[in-house]
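Exercise 7. Given the components listed, write out the predicted structure of the assembled complex. Treat all entries as one system.
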Amino acid sequence: MSRNAEQWMNRPKFPSSHFVDSRIYTDESIFREEQQKVFNGSWIIGCHESELPGAFDYRTFTHPTGTPLILVRGEDQRVRAFYNVCPHRGNTLLYDPVGNAKRITCIFHQWSFDTKGNCVDITREDQGFQKRYCKADAGLREVRAEIGYGGFVWVNLDDNACTLKEYIGDALSMLEEYMSMPLEVFHYHKAIVHTNYKLWHDTNSEFYHDYLHYFNRVTGMMQPGYFDRKYTGYPNGHASVGSMTIKYDAYEGSKERGVGWPGLAPGGWILIDIFPAMTFNLRTSVLRMDTSIPLGPNKLLIEFRGLGLKSDTPEERTQRVRDHNTIWGPFGRNLHEDLLAVHGQGRAMQPGSEATWILHGREENMTIHDEGGMRHFYAEWSKRMEREAFDPHGDRQVETVA
Amino acid sequence: MQPDRIAIEELVYRSCLALDAMDYKGYLSLCDDSFRYTVMALSPEIRKDMVWLDHDKKEMTLLFNNLPRHNSDHSPLARHANVYTVETATDGKSAAVVSALQVYKTTLDGGATELFAIGRYLDTVSLEGDAPRLAKRIVRLETRQFGFGYHVPF
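Answer.
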């Protein structure tokens, strides 16, 4: 039976933790608040250490708060992060996404900096500033950076935030043994989708949407053990899904992966979501890493990386690339389907459109089609935002259901 | 213009027309049994060449056959190729063909057209049969962002 307007907005008969108000995905004011309350103090992956192989190699990265950053390996091999902003007139220091710079020199007035963030040259310093301002006053703004958990370079804009280790806790413990050897990025691409970042993270936090993927239905869902996989929630909003075995040969044209991953059972699959918008996804022979960078309430940039072992032979690497791209590449079977689905959510939930309830109400003892992974995320989100996800503006007047 | 060049150019253009029309059998009929199709792009970000698809003729056939089983964007594509160079091998059995490629996407709802991708076809054309056939196609893409993506190769 269809519903009228009042019925449409009748609250679901779930506890308030089991649904959210769609305005958390569409409101500009909430998005701006998220940049400060959710992203500013979180550890975010900026790049992988293999993208900075040598001294003076750099990567630029726009943080989800909108802050432009430089990640650079110094002569001492330490990777540091700085605002990609000249302290003189606020110009961008490094324009290219990647490069090698012994000196970081602003094109505008040729102020120059070393890879420790020291200002090493102010053109016509004495003539202009007469000792009122000098190089010692003009260092770059350094941002906390740590390498860890598979060799990723993590950054945190909040000088007072907890350490990366404290932030992650035990959330990546299921993966750590598989990321103990040096890894290397072999695939990188970006996608901009008109959707909210949380909707992409939701997709990475629930497997009920395996129904979206013909490939997953035949290689995963039909296999013994599929429904035994369990979600585990960790402090700070992280969540993992236990391993299972994928029966690749159930998809015509696919086959048992020959390369595998050291220590991982053939066809194994482990997925871990890191709050607020990163996902580690180790599937058989490839580690995929998603990093979401929200550009607006309904605009999302996703960085996709595929990683193999640094020690790969050319033949092994070729197979990993192939395994990655047939499923997760830009023309892969699953990625387009996932992106199409969240694009559809963004299309249906336009900023300013009538709010609706988004359900996270499936309970299956925290097994694979339970929506507990999303509920765990929104509990942390609500805490940080000091807003309830089901009532972000305090106007829902939803009675509590025990 | 050499007579062979006309036939080779027509082969490239017919491959575009067949894919645009989603006539996959027609497309495969333009391909030699040894056909290999590869999509590549250079990532400046990781300083590496990337292989995004690498299929032989059998795998391309499977890809096409599996398309109806997947959820896909159904916006039609229009592939525009311009053959730049044709270099026939000294033995006359093959030719290396470089074409510029532009791919346009038109929305089903409203018919808005956008430039979807640019790149080049780097083709190896077999000249050994009764008509030129695609023996190898490398789609070397400049574009690396495709929004929510697409399932059908270029």
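Discussion: Chain B touches chain A through 32 residues (CB under 8 Å). The first strand of chain B starts at residue 31 and ends at 43.
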